[in-house]
Amino acid sequence: MKHVLSRHDTPEKLSARYFLPVCMLYRANTGKVWRPGQILWIPPVDWCASRKCGACRQTKEPIFHYREYEVGHGEKIYEIAQKFKTSMRAILSENRLQRPEEIKEGMVLKIPCLNDGFMIYSYRMADTPEEVAQKFSMTKEELISLNEAQGGIYPGMQLVVRKRGSS
Prior knowledge:
Blueprint: E1 2-4, H1 11-18, H2 22-28, E2 39-41, H3 47-50, E3 64-70, H4 77-83, H5 88-94, E4 108-114, E5 118-122, H6 129-135, H7 140-146, E6 158-162
Antiparallel strand pairs: 1-2, 3-4, 5-6
């Protein structure tokens, strides 16, 4: 999916809007200057996991699984995303759609869903990586590795964390 930067866009705002770590946005747009009018590529949620390169190592256990879902009469993408505990952007991206209006009754969608042991946590200004890791019974290193966040964790990032009690 493409995004044209406005003067109000920041990496943190884009991370929150598209439910992606800031580092993934940077990796997907290596060498681009982030300024108004610049077109950025917004990668799918499993982009890092599906890459076969040194910068993005796949975790030992899969974070996402995929389901097929047939759109019912009058259903909206927001409702579908809520039903599967995923984001509208993830559904659009996975199905190569640009706008929510493109979804029609009878269409079969591929839905990216977090596996049972994982959830999304929105990193806040007052958080520290150590506190977030401890909160979800993880090490700081595991949190960073799971989110491919070697470049840092920033407020607004949508982090994949283990559900409490999962290991």
